[in-house]
Write a structure and sequence with these properties.
This protein has four helices and seven strands, in the order ββααββααβββ. It is globular. It has one domain (about 10-145): Histidine kinase-like ATPase, C-terminal domain (Heat Shock Protein 90, 2-Layer Sandwich), CATH 3.30.565. The protein has helices at about 20-30, 35-55, 100-105, 110-115, and strands at about 5, 10-15, 65-70, 75-80, 120-125, 135-140, 150-155. By secondary structure, the protein is of the alpha+beta class. The longest helix has 21 residues, at about 35-55. Helix 1 packs antiparallel against helix 2 and helix 2 (about 35-55) packs antiparallel against helix 4. Strands 1, 2, 3, 4, 5, 6 and 7 form a seven-stranded antiparallel beta sheet that branches. Keywords: ATP-binding, Kinase, Nucleotide-binding, Serine/threonine-protein kinase, Transferase. One of its GO terms (molecular function) is ATP binding. It comes from Nocardiopsis changdeensis. InterPro entries: Anti-sigma-factor_SerPK (IPR050267), HATPase_C_sf (IPR036890), HATPase_dom (IPR003594). Pfam families: HATPase_c_2.
Length: about 160
């Protein structure tokens, strides 16, 4: 696979009721990819989308989440951008928890799942000077890169 191939971005209202639609759209966009790859992207995409819901428009309704999907160099990458309101917080895996703290914890497992499933993941602010949101992404190595006909050539 040469160049970068990208699907059009998809926008979703920042509510939990949109999770099923996002998953359905993502599965449709990944048509033609290996089933294990689709499952991994859907699992991690669901976690990333749900994390965005905590922060979009500071957790108030009316915010939105934007999903991006692209393929480059034998990898497929999914990303989600929230509307902001993180208060400067960044996604972190809480490695320093004891077994008891993990047992009682209400959060933090999703990023562990993403780290264990994706080839690589990361995040960046939309803007360095103010809290306009954060883009979080995960990349997955393709076992046999497909060439679906409905991809847009962007580079």
């Amino acid at each position: 696979m040469t160049g970068v191939r990208a699907w059009p971005p998809r926008r979703y209202p920042g509510t939990t009721s949109e999770l099923a639609r996002m998953r359905s759209d993502l599965a449709a966009d990944l048509r033609g990819f290996a089933p294990d790859t689709v499952d991994a992207v859907l699992l991690c995409g669901s976690e990333l989308f749900t994390n965005c819901l905590k922060y979009t428009a500071s957790g108030r309704s009316g915010g939105r989440v934007v999903r991006t999907l692209w393929a480059i160099g034998g990898r497929v990458c999914v990303g989600f951008t929230d509307d902001g309101g993180t208060g400067g917080r960044v996604p972190r895996i809480p490695y320093a928890r004891t077994d008891e703290e993990w047992a009682l914890a209400e959060g933090g497992r999703g990023l562990l799942l993403i780290e264990a499933t994706a080839t690589v993941w990361g995040h960046r602010p939309v803007c360095d000077c103010c809290d306009l949101g954060r883009h979080t992404w995960a990349a997955f190595t393709l076992p046999d890169p497909p060439d679906p006909p409905d991809l847009l050539e962007t580079a």
